[in-house]
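Ligand: S-adenosylmethionine. Inputs:
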Amino acid sequence: MNTAQKIIAAPRKSICRISDHGLWDTTKWAWSHVAARYREWSLNIETESWVDVDKLGYDPECHGYKPITFARFDSVMKEIEVKPGEDVFLDYGCGKGRALVLASVHPFRRAIGVELSTELCDVARENIGRAVRRLRCPAIEVVNADASRYEVPADVTMIFLWNSFVGQTLAMVVEQIRKSIEKNNRPLTLIYALPQGEKDVMAECDWLYGRRQIPASFWTGIDVFVYQAGKTERTVYQPLQSEPVR
Ligand SMILES: C[S@@+](CC[C@H](N)C(=O)[O-])C[C@H]1O[C@@H](n2cnc3c(N)ncnc32)[C@H](O)[C@@H]1O
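Predicted complex:
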C-alpha cells in the first residue's frame, strides 16, 4: 500500500479499530504511530514496515520482521544500567535494525545484530549508516547468520530477544547463551520481550536468575522480562510480583 492509499484507508481503519478496541485504546495506538514516525525521522531510519514470514521463506519456527515499539524499547533501556565503554549489546534477529540503532544511542562498547535474512541485513546496515551521527556506540556490526548456529562472542554482556523464533531454534539459541557463559563466566543481562500472554520459556532455565518484569510505560502489548546470568556482579532484583505491573 502506498502513502496515498494508506491515507485514504485511515478513517475506515480507525472506525473499525474503535469498534473492536474502544476509543481510548485506539487513541493510544494512533499516538504510538505518530511518535514512531517522529523517532524514525529524528534518527533518519526506516524500520517501521513489517516483512511477513512468507516473503522470507523461513521454516515455521522463525518469525518475520516486526520491530519492537519505540516506547517499549525506551522503557526497557530506562531500567537497565549500561556500563559506558564496557557493555556489549547483541540483538537476536535484528531485522531492519531498529533495536540495534536504539541500543546504540547508549554508550555500549560495541553492538551486534544477528539476522537470518540477507536483505534485512542490508536494510539494517543502511539504517545504521544513516543514523550513525546520532549514535554513541562506536562499533555496530550486522552479522548475516542463523542465530541458532551463531556462537555468542565472549565479550557480549547484554542480549535482546524480541519474538524472533520459537521451538527448537529458540532452544538452540538459549543453549548457545548458556555455553558462552560456561566458557567465559561474566555478568550477562538477558532482555526477553514477548507478546503479551506468551509463555516465558526462560523461566525454566535454572542458570538464569534475578527475573524481573519491566513495567510498560505506555500501551504496547509486549511483556518484557529481564534475567541475569553468569557472575553475580550486577544487582540481583526481587523476584517477579505475582501480578504484572502495568
Ligand atoms: C520480530 S523481528 C525482531 C526485530 C528486531 N529485533 C527489532 O526489534 O527491531 C524478528 C527478526 O528475527 C529474524 N529471524 C528469524 N529467525 C531467525 C534466525 N533463525 N536467525 C536470525 N534471525 C532470525 C527475522 O528475519 C526478523 O527480522
